[in-house]
Prior knowledge:
The chain has 8 helices and 11 strands. The chain is an alpha/beta fold. The protein folds into 3 domains: 3-90, Winged helix-like DNA-binding domain superfamily/Winged helix DNA-binding domain (Arc Repressor Mutant, subunit A); 94-147, no CATH class; 157-255, 3-Layer(aba) Sandwich (Cobalt-precorrin-4 Transmethylase, domain 1). The strands form 3 sheets. Strands 3-5-4-6-7 form a 5-stranded mixed β-barrel. Strands 9-10-8-11 form a 4-stranded parallel sheet, sandwiched between helices. A hairpin with a 2-residue loop joins strand 1 and strand 2. It starts with a helix and ends in a 5-residue tail after the last strand. The relative contact order is 0.10.
Amino acid sequence: MKKRNITEFQILSEIVRKQPHVKQKEIADALDITIQAVSEHMRNLLKKGYIKSRGRGEYIITDKGMRVLKNWISEFKRYLDDVTQDLYKYKDVWPAIANEDLNEGDEVYLFMRKGLLYASKEIKTDAKGKVLEGGKKGEDVAICDIKGIIDVPRGKVTIIKIPPRIKGGSKNTNYELIKKVLEENEDVAIATMGTVANVVASKMGLHPDIRFAVSEGIVAACNRGCDVLALITGKMTEKVVRVLDKHKIGYTVLDATKED
C-alpha cells in the first residue's frame, strides 16, 4: 500500500467514525498532518467518488468508498499477518557457527565451544535443531526447531602468574611453561592483566580475548562454558583469585617466573 493510500485509508476511517460532522482540523490532529494536507486528500476522495459532501463541513462515505475501505482493511490485515508470522518465526531462530558445511533442512546437533554455539551433523549431543539457512564451515547459520538441553559445563581457569617488572618482567618469564599449557588446552580463551602480561602475550603471538574488566570477563567466559588461560602480572593474581572464589569457579595457579 502506497503512503498516499495509507493516508486516504486513515481519513476514510476517520470519516466513518465521525460522519456526518467531520472537521478537517480534528482529522489533521488525529493523524498528525496539516489541515492543508487533509484538504488535499479530501478533494481527491471526492473526485474518486469515495465520499460526498453535504455542505457545511458534512461528509459521508459512499458505497464505493466503503468497498474500497473494506479492501484496504483486508489488505492491511494480510500485511499484519505476514509481519506477525515473521516475528514468531524469527523469535525461535538462533544463530550458530557451522562446524562443517551445512544446508537448509539439515538435522544438526548443538554444542558450545569457546563460549559460542556450534551446529554439527557429526558431533552428537543431547540438543538438536534444524538448519533454516545454511552456510560453509565457520560461517554463521540459522537454526530453528531446537529440542533438548544444550550442555554448558562451567569453564575452569588456569592462571599463569607473570613476574612483574621488579622481578625481571617478560625477560624472566618461563615461556616453555606457557607453551605447554597452551598445547594441553587448545580451545581456551586468553586473558591478560597488566602491562608485562600483555608484553608476554605479544611476544608469543597471542591475541587476548579478554583485556579489560578482566576478572568479570573471565567469570562471564566460564559461565558460557569456556576455559580460560589467564596471564596475570604479579600481585594482580590475588584480585582475580578472590573474584573466582566468590563465584565458585575452579582454577589452578602456576608461577611462570624462571628459577635461578
